[in-house]
Amino acid sequence: MELCLLKVHINKLCGVRQGGVLSRVFFAIYLDNLIVKFRDCGEGCCINNLYLGFVMYAGDIVLLLASLT
Fold first, then answer.
1. Coil, strand or helix: which one is 53?
2. Is pLDDT above 60 for 1?
3. Ramachandran quadrant class, 58 (left: phi over 0; alpha: psi -120 to 50; beta: rest)
4. pLDDT tens readout for residues 3-54
5. Which of 2, 26, 52, 64 qualifies as a FRET site for 43, CA 20 to 30 Å off?
6. Rounded-to-integer distance, Cα 11 and Cα 47, Å
7. pTM score, two decimals?
């Protein structure tokens, strides 16, 4: 299975220090956009029209995908 989002190449030129003041803000902004892109291209799981494609706790992220088997 190929995720439609993974067809896009993303260059990382710089970043922020881990634990820095802005790192949590940038992480939240990045994740919000990533989740929206996955939901819009149909990746992940939906239960009763509720998108449950990601399970997150602190810095840990699990992507949930439906299986054909």
1. coil
2. no
3. left
4. 555 555 566 677 777 888 888 888 888 888 888 888 888 788 888 888 888 8
5. 26
6. 33
7. 0.57
pLDDT for 17 equals: 78
**DSSP E strands, the chain:** 46-47, 50-51, 54-57, 60-63
Cα torsion through 25, 27, 33, 35, rounded to 10: -130
The sign of the torsion formed by the CA atoms of 52, 57, 63, 69 equals negative
Residue 35 tokens read as 């989740």
Measured from the Cβ of residue 19, the count of other Cβ atoms closer than 10 Å reads 7
User: What pLDDT, on the 0 to 100 scale, is given for residue 20?
Assistant: 84
Q: What are the Cα distances from residue 19, in Å, to 22, 33, 58, 61, 68?
A: 8, 21, 12, 18, 40
